[in-house]
Amino acid sequence: MPDDTSPLWHEGWYRFAHACASPNFGPRPAGALVDLVVLHSISLPPGEYGTPHVAELFTNRLNWNAHPYFKSIEGLQVSAHFFITRLGDLWQFVSCDDRAWHAGVSSYRGRSNCNDDSIGIELEGLEGDTFAAAQYKTLQSLIPALGAHYPIRHLAGHEHIAPGRKEDPGPGFRWNLLRDSLELPASFYPKATGLEHE
């Protein structure tokens, strides 16, 4: 288990995130190696930003009748560890020591069930669309903080761990910008981004 003596972390909760606990989580399998960060995109309704609906979804408080789109996801119980708004605000819904429900059916670096050993970060956005500078700035501080506390060795999009089923965050996400700011080895990034050739 991670060392909880760090001033940045307490039982898997990050000091600089707004905490909003979700009931949608479970324990990680014994011996899980939390070495993967998965990036997603979400907005509710799709393409509408600045609403409270993502937080409501992750905490099972979404009014399914509030928008026609919500009926298509009625009853869905999901969560991510983190959510980054367009303004760069960071919210945390699940302790990183626990298993959030963000990946679904998935496989990466030779392992299936990526929920078991990954940390999920949702970016407020729409797959294929671009993301805000403030969101990259928050990622640039969050990912090193995760790497200092957990044995992170891989960064991937939902599209890379569930190809053909998911497409987020999509081509609008600038992996090269993240790469240049984090200065992590090319082996951390999914081959589909092409970064290993740059």
SSE topology sketch:
Blueprint lengths: L8 E2 L2 E2 L3 E2 L5 E2 L9 E7 L10 H6 L23 E3 L5 E3 L6 E2 L6 E2 L2 E2 L5 E7 L8 H17 L4 E4 H4 L13 H8 L16
Parallel strand pairs: 3-7, 5-11, 5-12, 6-11
Antiparallel strand pairs: 1-2, 4-8, 6-7, 9-10
Helix pairs in contact: 2-4
Sheet-strand content, in percent, reads 15-25%
Number of domains: 1
State mean pLDDT (0 to 100 scale).
94
Could you name the CATH topology? Lysozyme-like
Shape: globular
The helix tally amounts to 4
The Rg value, from CA coordinates, equals 16 Å
Main β-sheet, spatial strand arrangement: 3-7-6-11-5-12
> pLDDT below 50 for ≥5 consecutive residues: which ranges?
none
Total count of strands? 12
Structural class: alpha/beta
Quick summary:
By secondary structure, the protein is an alpha/beta fold.
Descriptive account of the structure:
The protein has four helices and twelve strands, in the order βββββαββββββαβαα. It has 198 residues and is α/β, with parallel strands linked by helices. Helix 2 crosses helix 4. The chain starts with 8 loop residues before the first strand and ends in a 16-residue tail after the last helix.
Write out key terms for the chains shown.
two-stranded antiparallel sheet; 18% helix; alpha/beta; 19% strand; 198 residues; Lysozyme-like; globular; 6-stranded mixed β-sheet
